[in-house]
Amino acid sequence: MTEHPNQPVRDLTEEELLARIIPRLPQGPATVLGPGDDAAVVAAPDGRFVVTTDVLVEDRHFRRAWSSGCDVGWRAVMQNLADVAAMGARPTAVVTSLVMPPDLEVTWVESLADGMAAACAPHQVGAVGGDLSSGPVVMISVTAHGDLQGREPVLRDGARVGDRVCHAGVLGRSAAGLAALEAGIVARCHSPSEPGQVTDDQRHLDAVVRDAVGGYVRPDPPLAAGPAAAAAGVRAMMDLSDGLLRDAGRMARSSGVQLDLSGDGLRPDVEVLAELAQACEDDPWRWVLTGGEDHGLLAVFGPDQELPERFREIGTIAAHEPGRPWVTLDGAAPPVDGAGWDHFAPGAMS
Amino acid sequence: MTEHPNQPVRDLTEEELLARIIPRLPQGPATVLGPGDDAAVVAAPDGRFVVTTDVLVEDRHFRRAWSSGCDVGWRAVMQNLADVAAMGARPTAVVTSLVMPPDLEVTWVESLADGMAAACAPHQVGAVGGDLSSGPVVMISVTAHGDLQGREPVLRDGARVGDRVCHAGVLGRSAAGLAALEAGIVARCHSPSEPGQVTDDQRHLDAVVRDAVGGYVRPDPPLAAGPAAAAAGVRAMMDLSDGLLRDAGRMARSSGVQLDLSGDGLRPDVEVLAELAQACEDDPWRWVLTGGEDHGLLAVFGPDQELPERFREIGTIAAHEPGRPWVTLDGAAPPVDGAGWDHFAPGAMS
What we know:
The structure is a homodimer.
Chain A: H1 14-21, E1 31-33, E2 40-43, E3 48-57, H2 69-86, E4 90-100, H3 106-120, E5 126-134, E6 139-147, E7 164-168, H4 173-182, H5 200-217, H6 225-231, E8 236-239, H7 244-255, E9 257-261, H8 263-280, H9 284-290, E10 297-301, E11 312-319, E12 327-329
Parallel strand pairs in A: 4-5, 9-12
Antiparallel strand pairs in A: 1-2, 3-6, 4-6, 7-10, 7-11, 8-10, 9-11
Helix pairs in contact in A: 2-3, 4-5, 4-8, 4-9, 5-8, 8-9
């Protein structure tokens, strides 16, 4: 068949399309049997496995104008690996269902596979199977698996009064990146031939925009911090996908405690985004407190536990009193609405 | 919130919708940790697990006019459990991504959960987690897991010359059901007050229609036959999802043999559908040879192996000669096009 650069997937049979995808995907050390049969086989050395699934839907979670195939593949995998890490497990394998419009370019799908591979390979995760179908928009559902390495899974209900609330990763970065894209704020490429044209402030803002948009299209949470926290005896842990306030509220309710965030602890996250927020006419505290999709790890350690690498303290655990908020900021109700991301709210897009 | 019968999902938050779904879903004996945390934990007693994923897309794989929520939930689970069984494994747990339009009725989603539960519960399969999102059409991606119980996975490449080709389940039933729906042929309800109005022929056709449409909306493959075949030393096995000729071709190529189907072996499957095929002006051989989505098990046993329950012989394995078809019927090229189901073919609907 003659190739042309915009060849749509409808020109290929399912087997031909699989032949374009599968060689791009890595197999990991846990892969006993990879793609090609009715099902894959994955090692589960301690006799259990962790499993989680998350879906990305075009025009709901991403736009093809803003995210390349590579970005979407990366993000679809990474948001699942973060859930595995949040249980204290090491990710081992993913399977994927991919729905796509018949006019989607084959090169976009190849790029998606490359993005999945880029997210999997450094963590030795195998992409062991999948299913393809056509549909009205791109939808990618990834199921990720992990190995608890003999430890107990880390749940959300273990926080106790006096514990320290910690975080590993970034906060508000993805929300800031989306806001920049929506406001049409683009990081400029600075030509060395016109050094006088660009102020240091402009260079700084461009770097922040680049970082924020990168955080939106390719979140890169510190996955290894999850098993490290579990090994260090973390009391409770979860992945932040729906925003700090909303997810912290879930942990607080699960544990029956009040989770008090520290303004000082969060200020560095806010300050790095302040200039961009001004450009977007938005509130950097809103991004940090309610922005979802950063997939960092919220973890609660005991007062005397040594924090593993990447974690820093952002609050403390107090007793919850009836009628009081589950999550506070410096002891008071947070200054922004904590609803965060709701998948069915009209017009929501993350 | 006041309930009304056609309440759409957009009226509920994600947590409220989950609260309607999760209590309807069963947990199985392999469920170590069910829904509610970042991920679930499932037992894998022999240190490995089988994993497979398959997606159903509205207006591609089903229409809401022809399949209830319950039917779609059943079929989404069952097509995956069949893949697990085809590896010789016992299914243990599923996770699900569900995408739905905001105006979908909550009752439809509850019905979908009931259908998933109905497919899982008899096999002691737990529905351990999932993800919800909105999107333009209903899309349900299920990932199923299974336990090999210490046996090796059964692949497609073990067929040898002289072996017997066997099948457990039904053939052509789903294709016949879809054809009946497309032709507007509906099984009538016969009132006992008008016994003289209905001929025995009509009663028989109605029973066939009911059975075929049932096979289309709720395929019910003999899952236990998979592990039973593995325990009996089956040489090769796969689930028939894309039609007998197409899937048998995959097995033949994997094994490097010719798979010769027996007209006598398949005739009972054809005969039961003959009358309905006439009413649909279709060919019952085409349904039996190329109809997909029945999810029965195609299995190859050695010449002297005792067949486990549910399996019957439908062919033999011969040497493959270059230039000859991989799959034959009574030694000759099959009388219908063997392409079967292709997910990207224009206008295809199964």
